[in-house]
Amino acid sequence: MARTRKTPEGGDLVRFGVAIPKGLLKQFDAKLAEAKYASRSEALRDLVRAHLAEESWTGSRGEQTIVLPLVVDVRRPELIRKLGELRREAGEQMLTALQMRLNAREELQIWVLRGGGHTLRERVERIVGLRGLVMAKPVVAGPAET
Q1: Could you give the C-alpha distances from 11 to 4, 8, 32, 87, in angstroms and in order?
Q2: pLDDT of amino acid 81
Q3: Are residues 49 and 68 in the same domain?
């Protein structure tokens, strides 16, 4: 049976029981200690949020916010030109971008994009598929539903 109480922010917290094998719980607790979580509850909330955000991204539903770190080979002028085009093409979907040189050959770019799931997913796939990227890994940052 679930019990509900108010959070300091005015939302509802619901308590419920979870059955989990002892060995799995032991591994989970060890990870919580490494990550310095205050409680199992906070860790479970983070896991649920991450799962829901990832599911909405893979299902391309609703508005999404994506953080897209890119490691770019700066010796490839065609790649630099194409990234510039895609960045301008993103328009209002591009919230912000950061660039910094890592070494003589590589630059780190971090793009933050927001938009409708389907169109944003297509845009991110076009970026990630560019030839010459050393690394590109989209990270789902939203939707932030609580």
Answers
A1: 10, 7, 25, 38
A2: 96
A3: no
Distance CA 127, CA 12 (A): 40
DSSP state of 142: -
| Domain, as residue range, for 101 | 63-140
CATH number, domain containing residue 131:
3.30.70.1150
Tell me the mean pLDDT per 10 residues along the chain, length 146. Answer: 61 85 91 88 83 64 87 95 95 95 96 88 90 90 57
Query: Is residue 7 in a domain?
Result: no
Query: For residue 48, what are its two tokens?
Result: 């649920």
Number of domains in the chain: 2
pTM for the predicted model, two decimal places: 0.64
Spatial separation of the C-alpha atoms in residues 68 and 126, rounded to whole Å: 12
